[in-house]
Fold this protein.
Amino acid sequence: MNFLNVLLVTYVFPPAGGVGVLRAASLARYFPAEGIRLDVVTTRNASAVGSDPTLLSEIPSAVIVHRTVTFDLPFGIKKAIKRLVTRTNQPAGNTSRGAGASSSSLLRVALQEMLLPDPQVTWLPVLTRAARRIVRDRNIDMVLITAPPFSNVLLVERLRKQFPDLPIVVEFRDEWLSTAIDLVAFSRSKRARRVAQKSEASSVANATAVVAVTEAARREIRSRYPQEPETKFHLIPNGFDATRLCNSAPSLCSRTDKRIIVTHIGSVYASTEPSYLVRALQSLSPDERSRFRLRFIGYIEEPRFREALLQLGDMVELTGFMPQRDALAFMNQTDYVLLIQHGSLNVAAKFYDYIGGGKPVLATIHPEGPERRLLEELRAGWWADSRDVEGIRRLFLDVVARGNSLQSEFQPDKEKIAQYERKVLAQRYAALLHSIARAHRNTDGQELAGNGVREEI
């Protein structure tokens, strides 16, 4: 087997926890068996939602992990600053806060101007030095850069200047300019948009290949760069790790309390905000509401989202963040899994854990988004428009009416679902990287000679 020396650039890596770490962790877990010698450059002190040491125990010893320091702020402090930055300005003429309001505004503007395209840009100087050293010292054949954080893509141009012949693959796990910048960006100013547009354009121009995780996102980013060849843009979807899931049949009405447990796993933020869901559930009768227990496992980004959910009273349970293995164990004890997604381009990573776990999905989603197509194609559950209060209400009433017939009605396509196992997807990804390497060798008329280094003066 011809081995390919690949450097994976990822801001978060085990033992850091959260959904953003899972794709990189799965590639590190499965790439070595696919003819890839993997080095990983990551942060030692990532601003992560939590830790999950079990993920680290699954990384093969053959994977070399290079941990560097980052000057990014701790997760809690950064989220507090983001709330300050994105707070609505006081109306003109409102001087009730006096000098305090002016100081707050100055701090907000200063932070917006400094931390672009995102706060993790503080890692870039250290990352650049580390990546250059690793490419040289480890005889790297190819670099794979995953984003978000989107500041990671600034590395593409920096590496290209010094290594003009080095294949570089940039991966967008979220669609940046059409969705992420409006939903979760630290700054949404005009300057922030200009920086984002320039950064993405530069990374695409200098990359050998671009990978997206949904076909809708691939088409979206490809449409912005018609001068680039179609063959530059690829699709490798997210997936689930079958070794961490216990696939089980629906358990409706198997418990003594007879309450229907509906579980949401993952962060609650702008793209998954629950206000329409809450309004729909509040419109149910007291008897209908008493039939359900909603469990939210994960970080809740804004106080207003937590306050909205708490309006449901004892109908809802908020557990906070927990390691993935624990969260998936809770999922195995549920009747339905809940998906909330307002965007039209991305598929929530949790969706794949849901289908891999064999639980029926109740989805409040964009009617034109890729999740609707997947739900219907995989026969994985039922959906309503995420902004249709009456439609969501009917979705939950149908659950009550379905009762014990659930197991006969829920017949997912297991053969198609199996295509989304992370091991299978890692094999596809490895095949893509090997094909890029072969094309590069054929273009240059020579074997990959490490990195084609050009020293900077």
